[in-house]
Amino acid sequence: MLTEFSARTRANNIKTFKTEPLDVLVIGGGIVGAGLIRDLALNGGIKAGLIEQGDFANGTSSATSQLVHGGFRYLLKRDIDLVKKSRKEREILRRIAPNLVKPMPIALLSYKGDPYPLAGIQLAAYYYNRLFKADEAEKTAVIRDGQKVRRLVGPIAADGLKGCVLLWDSTVDDARLTLATLKDAHRHGAMVANYVRFLDFVKQSETVAGNRFFRITAEDIVSGQRFEITARKIVAATGPWNDEIWCRDPSYDGVPRLLTKNAKGIHLVVPRCGKQHDSEAYGLIACTRSEKQHKRNPRVIFILPGAHNTSIVGTTETTPQEELGSVRPSADEATYLLSETQRIFPDKSLDNDAIIAAYAGTRPLIAANRHERGVARTGFVSRDHLITEGPSGVMYLYGGKLTTHRQMAEETVDHLATFLNVPRHCKTDTVPLETLNGDVNCALQSSADTERLIKRYGDGYQMILKYINEDATLAEPITPSLPFTKAELLYAYWGEMAITLDDLLWRRTRIGWTPGQGLDIAPQIAQFLSAKNNWNQAKVTAEVAAYREHIQWLNFYL
């Protein structure tokens, strides 16, 4: 199905927000908000809208380890229920989004001096698989021969290597998963708009036909225009920003619900470590050593295969010193991850010059003063979630993670359907995110090109091929070093609601995560878009300058 999802779609949705009351308004266009608006749309009988102050997945939801996983490390914290939920949700996401959520073997390395013995890791991995029926092809295995481990995963440090345990999780481009979820909500009737900022609650509410309505003020960041949105229910799903909405709530009690200690995580993108081919690439998990000198408990480091022959290295757990919207990697954090990776891959040259890209996010950790069923829990920090409602009636979704976003949405819509008195039909665990029916003859060079488009864009590939059929020059690559065609750039704006050049390079294509970060081709791309999107020269210059400023800001520590 060829469905436009563009700036024009956004403008039409904003017009509706201004003039028609909603049943539910979701604030926040990360993965949790996306999952919620999709469930509302698929349920039927609910008029729902979503606003996001930046681009979709602009915050934490595009700054993860790119994993859909069962949470193996939560076994160490004895959070068995969270692991069970995560394992179940991983299988659901693999089923409904097979082109995005891809199985990945992971080697849990064991070295002499590590806090966890190899036999203990093996037992935990066996239990991990037993918690949820594993695919026959995803059996856990233990390898005690260090040389065999190195042949399998690449040239890791041999000194003290005791072996590894192999288990399976999944990899995903988190920004694309968020976008696909929002697009499916749009296909089923939801109205979504990026670059619309929540400003405040209008203190007085309205009652129409016996139903109470909230009103909020919002700002269209593109035009600068302010307007009001009316809805029977407001749901805040802004992750670590939720307390900023909570403190504006008419019923705010002065007590924050989230914490920032150990909430910041950074990742580095470096040239591929280990095996060089995606079909043979293993993710690696190893215990860190840097904490020993500070007499702290060791952590684990992830080294995961990324796109375009890169590896993603993460993550840290630090307290952000900057505002939530301004978190970025620090020199100390980058040095920490590089040194730990260098220790595991001693033959690699890993210094600041090896960093292709770096990014940071803030986890929505639930504070110890959270309340559940009226009972305060102290000394507790959770990656699980909390769905709560303030005395004003505004709902807040706290905590959660990429893997369990769908379940979090299901529980929320259960409550909303009851409140709205509409039948409840949860379909998000069975309806595919994208349907791949139909075919379009095109001018691409090979079926491999079409396969790549399907894997990346799902049913959006049909719109890309339509562009190429109409203009064969759009099949040309934007640069010989990258696979992206000009048609894909066009599709980002007309089929994926990209608004800025940064949206395109950092989230839609991840060109910002490739060598050079797209700085050399940004002017060329902007000039191409100027002809297709009616950008004047001032707009072209401003977009290129904004993207360069973003990259320079992220890379300030280099």
Description:
The longest helix has 18 residues, at 537-554. This protein has 558 residues and is of the alpha+beta class. The two termini are 45 Å apart. The chain contains 15 helices and 22 strands. It has three domains: 21-61 and 175-222 and 231-256 and 365-420, FAD/NAD(P)-binding domain (3-Layer(bba) Sandwich), CATH 3.50.50.60; 101-173 and 260-362, D-Amino Acid Oxidase, subunit A, domain 2 (D-Amino Acid Oxidase, Chain A, domain 2), CATH 3.30.9.10; 447-554, Helicase, Ruva Protein, domain 3, CATH 1.10.8. Strand 1 (22-27), helix 2 and strand 2 (48-51) form a beta-alpha-beta unit. The strands form four sheets. Strands 1, 2, 7, 8, 9, 10, 11, 21 and 22 form a nine-stranded mixed β-sheet that branches.
Features:
single chain, 558 residues, alpha+beta, FAD/NAD(P)-binding domain, D-Amino Acid Oxidase, Chain A, domain 2, Helicase, Ruva Protein, domain 3, nine-stranded mixed beta sheet
Provide a brief overview of the structure.
With 558 residues, this protein is of the alpha+beta class.
How much of the residues is beta strand, in percent? 15-25%
How many domains comprise the coordinates? 3
What ranges have pLDDT less than 50 throughout 5 or more consecutive residues?
371-382
Average pLDDT for all residues = 90
Sheet/helix structural class = alpha+beta
Outline type: globular
Rg estimate, integer Å: 23 Å
The largest sheet is: 9 strands, mixed
Number of strands: 22
Relative helix content = 25-40%
Q: Report how far the terminal alpha carbons are from each other.
A: 45 Å
Please give the CATH class of the largest domain: Alpha Beta
Question: What is the helix tally?
Answer: 15
